[in-house]
């Protein structure tokens, strides 16, 4: 996410922090790097000049002592970037909620609706989707398919060409839900017909929130689009999509700041779980390489089933861990996102410190273990120990999963270690382990290393 800008910001803050003296040559070099990185990230040129002018003035201010000056400049850079990223805004749900989604063709409205559906259904809300895009071919079918994957009810009518009639026809059923996510038509450009249609829909639906969906790579046209939509229908927030694929998200972010419309969510990937609540402080923390635990915890909440966690925890406490539990954990890791994405959110753990080869190996191992478990019978999943006694079973599983017998042995070894640890934790909680047994366990675990 904004990789080049992130690297420059880290380099800039390091240069300032490590400098013995902030002379004019060093200051000019820092300002030049900063201006280039911000402009390349599509931040408005006028804003870039304003920010760097303030930083340069502070850096060359002889009234500020050298040690205080470094801290002052870094804080000034932080504050100015936070200012253009805008203020965070929590969406407070009421008893009944209707989110109206707006945007041009290709912005990612329908996909974002499915992400919002997962986000809020994981937080205990009864969610449905409504397809009012009657112009784009197969728009309603796409919404239906995405909703069905998440076990979300969708209300569509592919034959009807009047969006208001679709709403009226399903209104009684729709009102039974806590949150209604409404898809609308887009255009190649914002024209009078589109403005008229979304205005009529807005008056009929009476949404509690109206979100504009814009892609991260939209550039400087984001400002005009945001302002025009705001004038047509009072948009309450913006959702920026494709934040994972573009280094030029500055235009979209600063357009929201200039139009005084807050960014509510950002889409960070193709999966339904790749949606994050936008917090400027957390976002900047990640850009500066300082991690973002808050977003990581939110991401875990959005992909992990709380009831499943409680079931697994109970089985672990009873020492009844099976390979099905291990599989659930592996799937959860995959759902959260790529390893480098997760590492980037952990404070103090920089992705560049972890070799790409090690990340790739870990990812491949998770895939192999998942395939191996899927190639097992229920008896083998519930009692993996039987595999060690019957190597013919291992050979069958390895063949079915397309892996080696050593991969199966590695999985069983990991499972046994986890099971031993959970049994010991349970015993310690109940006060059943004496000091001698605890020392023995510590020595045993000290010789082994967890792979995940």
Task: Describe the fold and architecture.
This protein is α/β, with parallel strands linked by helices and 452 residues long. It folds into 3 domains: 3-85, Four Helix Bundle (Hemerythrin (Met), subunit A) (Up-down Bundle); 97-300, P-loop containing nucleotide triphosphate hydrolases (Rossmann fold, 3-Layer(aba) Sandwich); 309-446, Signal recognition particle, SRP54 subunit, M-domain (434 Repressor (Amino-terminal Domain)), CATH 1.10.260.30. It is 59% helix and 9% strand. It is built from 21 helices and 8 strands. The protein has helices at 3-18, 24-40, 45-59, 66-85, 109-121, 139-149, 163-174, 192-205, 221-232, 250-259, 280-287, 293-303, 306-317, 323-336, 339-344, 356-374, 378-382, 385-389, 391-401, 405-429, 435-446; strands at residues 97-102, 127-131, 153-155, 179-183, 209-215, 237-241, 263-267, 275-277. Strands 3-2-4-1-5-6-7-8 form an 8-stranded mixed sheet, sandwiched between helices. Helix 6 (139-149) links the parallel strand 2 (127-131) and strand 3. Helix 2 (24-40) runs antiparallel to helix 3 (45-59), helix 3 (45-59) packs antiparallel against helix 4 (66-85) and helix 19 (391-401) crosses helix 20 (405-429). The chain is flat. The two termini are 25 Å apart. Mean pLDDT is 80; it is low at 346-352, 425-433 and 444-452.
Summarize the structure.
By secondary structure, the chain is of the alpha/beta class. Residues 346-352, 425-433 and 444-452 have low confidence and may be disordered.
């Amino acid at each position: 996410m904004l990789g080049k800008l992130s690297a420059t910001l880290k380099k800039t803050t390091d240069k300032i922090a490590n400098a013995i003296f902030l002379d004019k040559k060093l200051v000019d070099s820092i300002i030049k790097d900063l201006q280039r990185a911000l402009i390349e990230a599509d931040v408005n040129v006028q804003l870039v000049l304003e920010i760097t002018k303030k930083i340069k003035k502070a850096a060359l201010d002889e009234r500020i002592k050298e040690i205080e000056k470094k801290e002052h400049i870094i804080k000034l850079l932080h504050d100015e970037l936070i200012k253009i990223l805008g203020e965070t805004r929590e969406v407070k749900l009421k008893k009944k909620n209707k989110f109206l989604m707006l945007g041009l063709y290709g912005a990612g409205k329908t996909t974002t609706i499915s992400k919002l559906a997962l986000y809020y259904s994981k937080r205990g809300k009864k969610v449905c989707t409504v397809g009012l895009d009657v112009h784009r071919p197969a728009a309603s079918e796409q919404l239906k398919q995405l909703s069905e994957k998440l076990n979300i009810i969708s209300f569509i009518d592919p034959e009807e060409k009047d969006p208001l009639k679709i709403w009226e026809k399903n209104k009684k059923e729709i009102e039974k839900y806590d949150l209604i996510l409404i898809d609308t038509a887009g255009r190649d450009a914002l024209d009078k017909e589109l403005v008229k249609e979304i205005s009529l829909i807005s008056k009929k639906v009476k949404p509690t929130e109206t979100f504009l969906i814009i892609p991260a790579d939209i550039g400087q046209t984001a400002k005009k689009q945001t302002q025009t939509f705001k004038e047509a229908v009072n948009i309450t927030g913006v959702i920026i999509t494709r934040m994972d694929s573009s280094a030029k998200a500055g235009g979209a972010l600063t357009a929201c700041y200039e139009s005084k419309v807050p960014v509510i969510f950002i889409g960070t990937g193709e999966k339904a779980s790749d949606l994050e609540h936008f917090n400027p402080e957390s976002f900047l923390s990640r850009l500066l390489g300082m991690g973002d635990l808050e977003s990581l915890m939110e991401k875990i909440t959005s992909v992990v089933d709380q009831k499943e966690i409680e079931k697994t925890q109970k089985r672990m406490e009873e020492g009844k861990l099976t390979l099905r539990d291990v599989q659930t954990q592996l799937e959860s890791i995959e759902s959260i996102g790529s390893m480098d994405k997760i590492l980037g959110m952990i404070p103090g753990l920089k992705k560049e410190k972890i070799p790409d080869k090690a990340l790739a190996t870990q990812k491949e191992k998770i895939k192999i273990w998942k395939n191996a478990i899927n190639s097992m019978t229920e008896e083998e999943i519930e009692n993996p120990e039987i595999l060690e006694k019957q190597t013919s079973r291992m050979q069958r599983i390895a063949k079915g999963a397309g892996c080696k017998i050593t991969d199966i042995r590695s999985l069983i070894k990991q499972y046994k270690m986890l099971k031993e640890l959970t049994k010991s934790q349970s015993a310690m909680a109940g006060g059943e382990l004496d000091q001698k047994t605890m020392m023995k366990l510590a020595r045993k675990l000290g010789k082994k290393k967890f792979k995940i």
